Amino acid sequence: MIKKHLLTCSVTLVLVLISGLNIFGKIVTQKGAKKTALSPRTSDFIFLKSAEAVAYNFADEALPVNDARVTFKLNKSLRQHDFKSVQSNILHRKAELWFPIIEPILKFYGIPEDFKYVPLVESGLKSGTSSKGASGFWQFMPGTARTYGLRVGHGVDERKNLRKSTIAACKYIKELYDEFNSWTLAAAAYNNGSIKLARAINKQKEDNYFRMKLNRETGSYVYKLIAMKAVIEQPKEHGYDNYFYIPPASQLLAIN
């Protein structure tokens, strides 16, 4: 009887241990699932991959396909940046001079290389200071520039220094990404400010840039970056095979 009782207790103990391991295993699996789950600010729709989406993306965040509104806005931006509209190869000339300086800085700070197109969109076809006071390659406002370590005032304006302003931009963009957990939203916030974008996200209950309703400038901003990327990487497909003017480097690059 004693042996039988001991055997019964042993079997019961083994079953309890196995049950405990199964429960522990479920807890581990659940914890693992939480780590790999998408952030609530990152919609899986934006990462949709297809033959149409692969060609046009920003920082590997692809445009939604089969969306007439998205297609219309992209095509409009592509037309605005093709050779017929620009009538110059100034964008490619600036890219040739600026990118070798911008790219390693972006890489050092862990910022996707596609952000190198921001200066081309911001100041590629214009120079000087905007009516709102933004200036330089990355079109920083004076206050934002100072926040990220640039000297502005008393005869000094480091917003016009490509290296220094790119370092400042990387710090700013990294903060925006940490807030929104999306590179497209970080780019939109760079244009419109994080406070305004956060309000729009909360009001619309939507964190996919391509499905949000934003002001005209911000709503077209990422499309401009994608179009800029397209004309620089595939110039002939967008009419850039008839270069007739090459601006001197002194007019396009200012590095102090």
From TrEMBL:
This is Transglycosylase SLT domain-containing protein. Belongs to the transglycosylase Slt family. SUPFAM superfamilies: Lysozyme-like (SSF53955). CDD domains: MltD-like. Residues 105-208 form the Transglycosylase SLT domain. It holds the Pfam family SLT.
